[in-house]
Automatic annotation (TrEMBL), chain A:
Protein name, as recorded: ABC transporter ATP-binding protein
GO molecular function: ATP binding; ATP hydrolysis activity
Protein's UniProt keywords contain Transferase: no
Pfam families the UniProt entry points to: ABC_tran (PF00005)
Organism annotation: Candidatus Dormiibacter inghamiae
Record family assignment: Belongs to the ABC transporter superfamily.
InterPro entries, sorted: AAA+_ATPase, ABC_transporter-like_ATP-bd, ABC_transporter-like_CS, P-loop_NTPase
Keyword set, alphabetical order: ATP-binding, Nucleotide-binding, Transport
Residue intervals of the ABC transporter domain: 8-233
From TrEMBL, chain B:
Keyword Nucleotide-binding: no
Official protein name in the record: ABC transporter permease subunit
Organism of provenance: Candidatus Dormiibacter inghamiae
Lineage top rank: taxon: Bacteria
Transmembrane parts of this sequence: 16-35, 75-95, 116-140, 160-180, 187-208, 250-272
Entry keyword Manganese: no
Source lineage: Bacteria, Bacillati, Candidatus Dormiibacterota, Candidatus Dormibacteria, Candidatus Dormibacterales
Amino acid sequence: MHTSDLVVETTALTKRYRGGQLAVDSLDLKVRRGEIYGLVGPNGAGKTTTLRMLVGLIRPTAGTALVAGHKPGAPAGLRRIGAVIENPAFYTYLSGRDNLRVVAHYGGIAETAVDTALEEVDLLPAAKGGYGSYSLGMKQRLGVAAALIKEPELLILDEPTNGLDPQGMVEMRGLIKSLGTAGRTVLVSSHLLSEMQKICDRFGVIQNGRLIAEDELADARQAGLLIRGNPAGRVRVALERVAGAKAIAVRDGAFMVNADHVQAAEIHRALVRAGVEITELRPAERSLEEVFLEITGGRQ
Amino acid sequence: MIGPVRGEWLKAWRSPYLWTVGLLMMLVLLVRGYGLDWFLMSQSPATLPAATIESYKQALAPAAFAQQALGNPGGVTWALEFVLGVLLFGSEYGWRTLAAMLMVGPSRATVFGAKTLVLLAVVVLLVLLRFVTALASSVISAVTLDLPFSLPPAGGVATAFAAACLIAITYASFGALLSLIFRRASIAYAVGLTYLFVFEDRAFGVIAKSSAQSLRDLTMGFPGPNSVALVHNLGGGTGSAVAAANTGSVQAAVVLAVYCLAALGIGCAILVRRDET
């Protein structure tokens, strides 16, 4: 892959805190332009430390990183990045709009961008309200607006759904997916695997500061074919004939067949020949949680 | 630099906390510099000794307004100036907004520079307001107590104003530095106010009245005694001015300026080099 296709590229990035705690250990992370990349891992895995290094808040102990073509923390690079690390932080005595005005001044951005950013996160009606009176969901959205005001090519969001109620989670999920369009790259971290599954194009699993799985996750999630049909006895006989008895398992009333997607047509023909009424036949995927637990050995 | 300065100014201008500290400064000046003396003069002049009445008249007259604005508030106002520094720098840690600002784009040195410029502007404006308040109070005193209405020479007022600014900036810088060192407004307040009230106000005051010359010389290396010296030499009155009697204005001003530069230099180095977790 050409380097210019990568918006984030780290090589052996390492952070050891003064107390000796190794927070990030030789991390090689590659985020491609235009994708929504999920950095998944349990609490304390090193996600936030990694993101803090990428925006220059903390310095790596070893290793290198390039973010939006610049070293982390370089003003030229920061101007192309929008980031919300941990919870959004704003001035409680200022309104939502004035908080964004401060950000705009800091970023050398015209104040006209403020209302545009507020509109993008659906906060324009509450722009005059004091930040202190905002709900957690509104605070998160203001954080995203502050990140968007620079029209960044890379958006870094750390645990954006943390603490949100189900409605807030749905809204934030929709917002992140919409932000990942038009060539914008989104790097989002979370320990909520099911949420990431709904948002991201690719995942990296981080544990104890190391990236323990990445692209192979897509393959790992494939779990053969799921088949439902009537009568069940005749389905089993037909499947055993095509795939073999050892390749078949039953889960929640459905037959799970350890078979490749290309075998679906062959299996379908066999079921039809056996006179089975097929009600469902589709590729089965394991949840990200299942894969994650398998990769990490259940040490989440 | 202009953008971050505008951002910092917006925050400062809208901050109810800065307005509160500013109002407290004026209240201290009005009560300690004018209110109490005016009350005694207007309510019970017959019971006061002639020398006391004369000293009150001199202090309340417009001719002494610059000295009143410079010196009479004393330690409390210096403590409030220290609070200003903590408010502008230390509060960012409490709200966790500093990291958010550092991620926006300007370099850390630029962020520090913008915050420092706005801190200096706020401090100078509040000193100016103190002088205007003192002038207005002295005019009211002159009208109500029939005092002579003559203003001090402009040069004297300018010197007093510059000295008041230097002292205010010294204490505000001290507050900023402690905030950056401790990354907590609360601990910066605890350490700074303990130093101001226990050491500068009490311990150094006692040493100033003692005969231990070496200790007295030692205290002249600290900001408090040099501030007192500057005020004393420019005609302002504070209780422990005795210790400073032998210290010239220039020497005191140089010591304070060195403290300012050191505090801001160390503060900048801390912000630029340290991890913000």
